[in-house]
Amino acid sequence: MAVHLPTSKQIHKLANEIGLELSSTDADSFRELFQFYVDAYNIVDAMPDNVPQVKYARTPGFRPSAEDNPHNAWYVKTDVKGAARGKLKGKTVVLKDNVMLAGVPMMNGAATLEGYVPEVDATVVTRLLDAGATIVGKAHCENLCLSGGSHTNATGPVHNPHKMGYSAGGSSSGSAVLVAKGEADLAVGGDQGGSIRMPASFCGIYGMKPTHGLVPYSGIMPIEVYVDHTGPMTANVSDNALMLEVIAGSDEMDPRQYNVKTARYTRSLEGLKGVEGMKIAVLKEGFMQQNSEVDVNAKVRTAALRLQELGAELTEVSIPVHLVAPAVWIPIGVEGLTQTMMYGDGYGVSRRDLYVTSLMDFHRNWRSRANEMSETTKLFMFLGTYIRKYHGSRYYGKAINISRRIREAYDAVLKEYDLLLMPTTPVKATPLPPKNASRDEYVERAFDMSSNTSPFDITHHPAMAIPCGMSDGLPVSMMLVGRHFDEAKIYRAAHAYEDAVDWKLE
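Above: the chain's sequence. Below: its structure in token form.
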């Protein structure tokens, strides 16, 4: 794909777009000056790209039939076998469908990406295979990952494993369903506003959003660098800790990574101490969301009491900024995804990264198919374009600055306490909106469960969804939040609770 010298007509059109007034002589002058630089682009074009080599054999897999995919959780089924031995030997893994698996289709929930096949493996994929895992497929996710509900995938909604017709949560919807149904031992999820923890909450599994940058995001389609997280979704705590142990650590390509500190997370599950002596702060504001359900709050408070019975010291604390933190997420999420994921062709510029140019080429075609995007993508990109045109980037910058103050507020409490505790989502799984739902209902069902999860994407604290009860046939989830790079303490408490309590009977 060579770069061509622009025509005189293109020169004048480009000048108008950037506010330049050019005479015909000026236009000809600039066109001539372009030649040297265009030649440089074509030198780059002729060189081979520098991307990681694929290590393990695979085939493209297949799309399962509707009969074999009743919850619409699968996108593609595969059988990619990893190393002959390793920590994950015998474990099956499903990937959220924004994670690149070379030679296997990836649509990231969007009609505009259907037909794209990456040529590289994400770093997490290589690490899972190196550890002996078998990758059994790609799980449907929400349209470009922009929904906390499971109704935006271009192929249709993903259904809750406990109750058909109800949301599985998003955006890692299929990942949560397949783990909950036992069709995969482990799943890779992604989390920008709660997209690991919200489906884990709705489906009754364990979902860890690690500290920002702990797990490399290289080879995963981003939304916005400041809030991109990836992590494990599993049916139990020990598998979650083991999986994080395998995928955590620096890969020298991901700009999200800085001062990364890993640990042997499985060691935190050993011994008999459990939560004895741990100080846990029960966050008052986490139970005060506008849509908080009485039964959800009650089940989570009961779970907190169970931890107290196991030896933890519980104290209710107040962090008022928790209630406004979701508003601070909005300029970061909206403007970041508009600039990076949409106008930046999936990546944007100005950072080191693993740039998968085939994805960039394919994804830029959204410009001719914008009407096919989900209502959530349309809304965020429309708003982000408006803000950029009329207000510039000042609110994005200010929100980043404020996020550090919010982080400090949580850190002040975490200096005195080991963990924060609150509901993962203030609500249980909601009914899927009907096909003829209004835009208002469609959007509301996509974002009405993220108020407790999104703050920790902008403050970068590790946070884990832990199932703690059932109500009306649907799971309820408790969230534990820890200090940066202290996932081990979260696992310790989660494992103690899991060992002592059958959450399905709570």
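The first helix runs from residue 8 to 17.
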